[in-house]
Amino acid sequence: MSKKELVKQKIGRSAMQCFAKFGLDKTTLDDIAQAVGLNKASLYYYYKNKEDIFIEVALKEGEDFINSLQETTVLKEGIENRIAFYLESRFNYYKNVLNMNRVSVDTLNKILPRFFELYNALMKREKIFVTQLLGKAVADGEVEMTDLENTASVLINLTDALKHSVEQQAILKGETEIDYTQSLQDIKFLVSLIFKGIKK
């Protein structure tokens, strides 16, 4: 790891501690610089603003989480259980990354486009993983299906759409908290609906 990457790692850790303590909105670059032991001007060499720090670190954490989740998912019994566990776990993880203790609705609205632009690369890997899960289930004779890639893509996209929908509604209504209960129930229903149609 280069010196620059080590410093960025240190900035990221310190920034996330500040975000957890004060929230993203109230944390200043001065707070982060002080926590790292740098001056504010030095931070600009690495990041344009605190939102960029948040997005980069959150995505790195997300990548580590997804790697661990995929290892755990393959140990579950049965394809429906694996898919349901994977989709619900990733949903819960991402809602906590962008929860209201760390990010206000206004800031969430600002950072979501950039967050999901960068998140797309990780999502492609997730779709490959779900495709592989489905492929193994077909090979094992658990399910009958032909378009594995499209099914995987729909499962991930619909899960994310349910999450984004409830977040956008909260933003439009100016609500300070987001209730994800219905979205999680909808994910469970979606998975059971799909597997009723393809299970042997």
TrEMBL record:
Keywords: DNA-binding. InterPro entries: Homeodomain-like_sf, HTH-type_TetR-like_transc_reg, HTH_TetR. Residues 28-47 bind DNA. It comes from the Bacteria. The keyword DNA-binding applies. SUPFAM superfamilies: Homeodomain-like. Residues 5-65 form the HTH tetR-type domain. This is TetR family transcriptional regulator.
